[in-house]
Structure formats: structure tokens, C-alpha cells
Specification:
With about 180 residues, the protein is an alpha/beta fold. Helices cover about 45% and strands about 20% of the residues. It starts with a helix and ends with a strand.
């Protein structure tokens, strides 16, 4: 009887040891698995504001498929050249070219042609002037922009304007932080 009792205790000991070991392994594996789940996936970096504008202005419309465009120098609220107007227009030009949606004319290369016609990329954005720029450069659309300072950056409002009609086909706005 004593021998049987010892065998039973021995079996219970091994059984208990096996269960503890199994629970320990399950605990380790589940902790590893749950730990992976808790880790956040790498976040996609936010899209830079001027790239957002380029994407928005490049989205294909149902009825309109322009071929040629140029980005004018962005102006301030009073219609004067903004201190950030040229650099923002250049950066937007680059982003538009990357989107491969339009035939984008180089701003610097076309300044001479415009100057000979008495125009410039810094011209006011009245309809008559936009038409003249469009005729000289054989454009379908023009992108204009207004830069408004706000806190530690600027709001950039852009418009995609059809040359023939003067209609605004698309418009968008982003906030660009200016490190200064």
C-alpha cells in the first residue's frame, strides 16, 4: 500500500510538473505573441503639404484633361509677390512633375519668353493677363496661388484655372510650416 501511495505521489508530481511546464511555455509564447500585437506598426510618414496640393490638383476629372500648364509665382492677399511665392511655386512645380499628370512647363526657362511679351510669372492674376500668358506659352491651364502668413507658417491657397474660360477647375489649401 505504501508503494502504491508512493507511485501515485510520483505520478502526481510528474503530472503537476508537466502541467506547470506546459503553462509556463504557453505563457511565454502568448506573451511573445501578444507583445508583437501590442507593438505599433510603422506609421506612414505624413505627406508633405505641397505634395498634398500636387496630388489634389492632379486628380483626374471626368470631363477635363489638360495637357500643358505652368505654376505662377504665388502672391499675397494684396496681389503682390509673396516673400515665399517663388519657392512655393517652384516646389509645387516639382511635385506636379512627379505626379506625371500634366506637361508642366519650367518656370525659369519660360520667363524670357514671357518677358519679351511684356508678361511675367509674377503677373497679377486677372483673367486678361492669364489669357495672355496662356496664349504666349500655349497653355491649357494655369495654377495660381495666394500665400497668407499665419503663426509659424503660411496657408497656401491654389487654383487650377482653365485658360479659355477663366473657370476654376480645382482649388485646394494647405498649411506649410516655415522654419525660421
Amino acid at each position: 500500500m505504501e508503494n502504491r501511495f508512493m507511485n501515485m505521489l510520483l505520478r502526481l508530481g510528474w503530472n503537476l510538473l508537466f502541467r506547470v511546464f506546459t503553462l509556463l511555455l504557453i505563457g511565454i509564447f502568448s506573451a511573445c505573441y501578444l507583445g508583437e500585437e501590442r507593438e505599433s506598426k510603422p506609421k506612414k510618414p505624413p505627406t508633405p503639404p505641397l505634395e498634398q496640393l500636387a496630388v489634389s490638383l492632379s486628380e483626374r476629372g471626368l470631363y477635363f484633361h489638360p495637357e500643358r500648364l505652368v505654376v505662377l509665382t504665388f502672391l499675397d492677399n494684396e496681389g503682390k509677390k509673396s516673400p515665399y511665392g517663388e519657392i512655393l511655386a517652384e516646389k509645387l512645380t516639382t511635385e506636379l512633375v512627379k505626379k506625371d499628370r500634366y506637361l508642366v512647363l519650367d518656370r525659369l526657362a519660360n520667363q524670357k519668353v514671357l518677358k519679351e511679351a511684356g508678361l511675367s510669372l509674377d503677373s497679377p492674376t486677372d483673367t486678361a493677363t492669364l489669357r495672355k500668358i496662356g496664349e504666349v506659352l500655349k497653355l491649357d491651364v494655369i495654377i495660381t496661388g495666394i500665400v497668407t502668413p499665419y503663426q509659424d507658417g503660411v496657408f497656401v491657397n491654389t487654383r487650377l484655372i482653365e485658360i479659355k474660360t477663366g473657370l476654376i477647375l480645382k482649388a485646394d489649401e494647405v498649411y506649410v510650416r516655415i522654419d525660421g
